[in-house]
Queue: 2 jobs
Job 1
Amino acid sequence: MSQPFIEARNIGKQYGQDIILENVTTTVEEGEFITLVGASGCGKSTFLKMILGTEQPSSGELLLNGEPMPNEPGPDRGIVFQQYSVFPHMTVLENVVAAKGFQKASLTGYLFGNEKRQARQEAAEMLTQVGLSHALNRYPHELSGGMKQRLAIAQAVICKPRILLLDEPFGALDPGIRADMHRLILDLWRTHKLTIFMVTHDLKEGFYLGTRLWVFDKLRHDPHAPNAYGASITYDLPVDATQDSLYQEIDDQLRPTKSTTMTADLTERPT
Amino acid sequence: MKKLINHTPSSANQVLLGLLPFAILLIAYMIGSDARLAINPSDKLLPSFGQMGEAMYRLAFEPSRRTGELVFWQDTLSSLMRLFAGVGIAAIFGLCIGVLTGALPILFASFAPLLTVISLIPPLAILPILFIVIGLGEASKITLIAIGVAPFIARDIQRRTQEIPSEQLVKAQTLGASTPQILIRVLLPQVMPKLIDAIRLSLGAGWLFLIAAEAISSTDGLGYRIFLVRRYMSMDVILPYVAWITLLAFLIDYLLSAINSRLYPWNAEGKS
């Protein structure tokens, strides 16, 4: 395959005077699992939103299969946000069935008869895969945070996206539940051959999950004008090959600009 | 001794405390009424409950000599029809305009300023215009209520639509949803309980416009009757009518709130 799946050519992003990203150049092949880490406001979420289509680069090009990335969200790029990812007025099953219905080019996306039966069955299977088979008829407000995220993931995966974007999906979850979610997401990544981008605050999570780790940070820093320079990808590492010492080094580098809560998050060392 | 701010009455006491002011008001009224009637038995200002009962019995159960109707029930029926028609039309308009302008930035840009200006027009000030244009019949009264209430509902629904997290709209798009699908499946169902809340809040204004319109031009209705018998100082009719209107307003409000929690159980716990 000569053409990369996703290619970023010298991307920059600025809001007015504030430069968020600069000189981001990279390529991604299909099937990679990339984790994006970095301090708050370093542009990792902005980069994710560019792939999602809700933000566009101010300069440079972002290509998907050689074509410019679409400038609005579409069914080839699924997303799971940290919250508000599921529809509160639908039960668990309805949430996933609705996702199937949206694929149909009808005015309302309601399914009837055979189609509906099939969608319900498919949805139920998907929900079993993510471990929600016991909660099909509950509403999202009756679910725990972890269950809501499982539902959001099921919704995204049933639409068979080629790319799955995860924007701090497990940020609000307990550590024990987070480990379960990691297993789930790795499992889905393998079975559905997804290309995953995951933004996380938790460096440990970044090192453990996926195949590739990107660290977003500013290359130059002007203390009198903190927003004069944008961030870029400062480390691009295959996850298997990383050493403890390197983890330490990245951790130390990210820490000074982090808020206190995230520092607390990062004081846990990898085992 | 507990601080006053920490004193919470038990649920039984809460009911008793709630009923107490009603009882005090009733007793105060009876004492005042008895005192006045003792001095002047034909006093009309504070009729006794017996006199009110008699007057209401005449209106509710004896056919009117002029029209042959049971006046009280005819008044109630006419007024409720007008109120429901007016508020119903306002709700449908408000819902459509609110959801569309709340969801589509282009429509918001073109219609939000107009909607704001329209909502600032005092509806009663345009009542003469309605009488001139539509005539004095039912249509002008219903239109007054609809015009009076619709802008409030539309703006409320607009705000509620905009409050739905944008993550949901993005998510729906990544699932392949089109604009009509998002409007019908994601936004509309979520603002339905808010619509019922908006209707509950606007019913007070609805009653105001109804009674005003009936007072000015009508041949029946609760508001019409109150203003008619005012000429004879018939407090024995006015007071029970006011109580009846209050009871109807309370029942409608209670009914709507019950419908809301029955139809939209997911709304109770707030957003997910």
Job 2
Amino acid sequence: MEIVDLTMHYGRGAAVVKAVDGLSLTVEAGTVTSILGPNGAGKTTTIETCEGFRRPQSGTVRVLGLDPVADAPRLRARVGVMLQSGGAWLGVRAGEMLRHVAALHAHPLDVDALVERLGMERFARTPYRRLSGGQKQRLSLAMAIVGRPELVFLDEPTAGLDPQSRRATWDLVSELRDHGVTIVLTTHYMDEAQELSDRVHIVDAGRVIASGTPADLVSAGARNSIRLVARPGLDLGGLVAELPEDSTAAEVQPGQYVITTDVDPDVLHRVTGWCAAHDVLPASILVERQSLEDRFLDLTGRELR
Amino acid sequence: MSRLDLSPAPGAAAPWRRLLTQAAMELRLTLRNGEQLLLTLVIPILLLLAGSRSDRLVGADRPIDTLAPGVLALAILSTSFTSLAIATAFERRYGVLKRLGATPLSRGGLLGGKVLAVVALQIVQFLVLGGLALALGWRPADGATAWLWWLLLSVLGTVAFGGLGLLLAGTVRAEATLALANLVYVLLLVGGGVLLPLDRYPESLRGVLAALPSGALGEGLRDTFMTGSPGTVVVVVLAAWAAVAAVAAGRWFRWE
């Protein structure tokens, strides 16, 4: 899948809002790709353009080598879609709806097995209007994959789910990937992107501001640190000299030291070695590695939107 | 869990299967919906029962012969306009059209499913209401041509009202569609020439009523079952409405 220089805007005249502004990204077959971004970053607009619901106003989008709008009839059977909300009649029972979508496909998953796998037995006979938010999410996920697509779009698949259901969704996504399904998901949960994805694209204000594996993105950011609690007034100058270049150390509060460096096992060994040599028994040594969340906040800013 | 093979095997079901699946689903949901059944079956049945005993209202020696075709016209109005419009408006509102648009069903399948479901429901209505009318003493005009005219007028009426219903559902909000579709049902039932012959209305109104699809369908079915064939004007009026409504719905209906 490939998006080149996609631009989408709403409104007209002075009130034009650019939802997507020159966004480009590529998704490789057989991978899990996350589009990560704050609310209003343009994630849903981007994914709905890939799903063929919107026509690109400029730029190009190719999905499985095809045009999502012009080739929609050919793509519909091959692509599974999970909408962010809605998508079922109010009076339809959950299991009935899933069976309906399955019947539109040639080789659907075994509906009973899928219901069991997603823990939907309890509410399979409940009308859609009486389902909880999490139950609707599970049905929506089931509808996206029941047709055994080769590419699946999941728009915030775990929004509003309890931890058990989130974990179950993650397991299913990983398993789909292991079976060769390509998955593109949007999320604003860092842990989700970090845990699931082969590749993450951080999107803000309608453009991609960083791309890479979760590990790449984390290590490309500010360096990691070791937080040391020991007796106050230590001179760490000698330690810093033993550490890689550009390392720094500071006593941020009496007895609390932060050593900023590229942490690896050897560095940790040097720190404890220095402590032994100087008869320092630290009350704690904490290795702080930057998470994707820190990186995300560094890139997108910390103000509320 | 071993039955769950997650490897990709994409493919659409055969077109006829998708169409039938969709039509069956639409029909099931309609039959499950009490408000829709009220409009499509309960009210027409009550009107037949009440009206067949009231020669003052209908104004004929045999009120049932006048009333039965009017009730059959009302049945077409209720299913192809009111019920279709409300159901489609909420499908649009709740993302059902969007969701199904992302399946192999396709828009043609969605529309075809609706047409089949409407036709199936109309057959049920025809059997129930026609059967009840016969039991109440209705004597429709003899001859196969009357039934052919009935079929033609029913198809034209369904296309005209169905097109208008989709136009309404596809252009305004779901709540507004709900209100308007019910209001139009009541207004046409009382004053639209569906149920009562045009000669029961003030003379100044008759021209307007004859030009409405409701008046044309009601009058056409009454003429057909009382005399054996409808007037030419009625058929032309209804055909014109059918053509305009179909084109307008195709032009302005929005799926989302």
